[in-house]
Amino acid sequence: MSAALRESPTAPEIAMQIPLAPWIPPAPKYRDRVNSHALYQSRNDLGLPDLLSETWVPERLVSFNDPARYGQDAALHFFIDDYRFEPIWQAPAKYAERFEMNGAVLTPDFSVYSDWPLAMQIWQVYRNRWVGAHLQSLGFRVIPTVGWASPADFFFEGLPQRSVVAIATTGVRRTPEGIDHFTVGFDRLAELDPLCVLVYGGLAGLIDDPGVPVREYPSFLDNRRSIMEGD
After folding, report:
1. Gap between the Cα atoms of 109 and 166, Å rounded
2. Residue 211: which residues within 8 A CB-CB, separation 6 or more?
3. 186, exposed or middle or buried, with CB in 10 Å at 0-12, 13-18, 19+?
4. Mean pLDDT, range 17-45, rounded to an integer
5. What is the pLDDT of residue 221?
6. pLDDT averaged over the chain?
């Protein structure tokens, strides 16, 4: 039989001609951009990690990007632009020294907006809970930060009952709709029976009677305004 009329090679014959690829080890943690190397306990259907309860109430809240004000009487907060603390998600252990300089760490306040696809909103909540659970597993004192784009249940999943929690009110007062949106979510938060709600930016003009213990802290703009007014 001529070469032109020879039958095509079978699949096994082709496979024998392909050199074996070298063994490729699993990706190291620094390439694991979704942090799948560490999955934490969850009692909800979405798998949002459960956080442990915390009872400590700090004297101050200090920003992650303001190390000059760090101290053991303070809790480190992330009520700043997301790009400033995105590395916390990518490599939280890298910032252990910063965390140790403070009495506690709030979970990162990854932004969530109501006009985002639902999957993106859930992902941001997942990242918030994951960082908190990871830091707790390393022995850090962690205070859950709560944010919501709606009163949907998943914004409150993974949060402990009877715990100190933290929220921010910066930007909430800009519109009546924003105020209404905030109060509905706060009522949902109150169902967790928090020991204390740490409020960055205060509740003035939002809620007269929160119905739960609250401690208010001035925001960056509040402090700046006080300096300009000479208080």
Report:
1. 10
2. 190
3. buried
4. 73
5. 75
6. 88
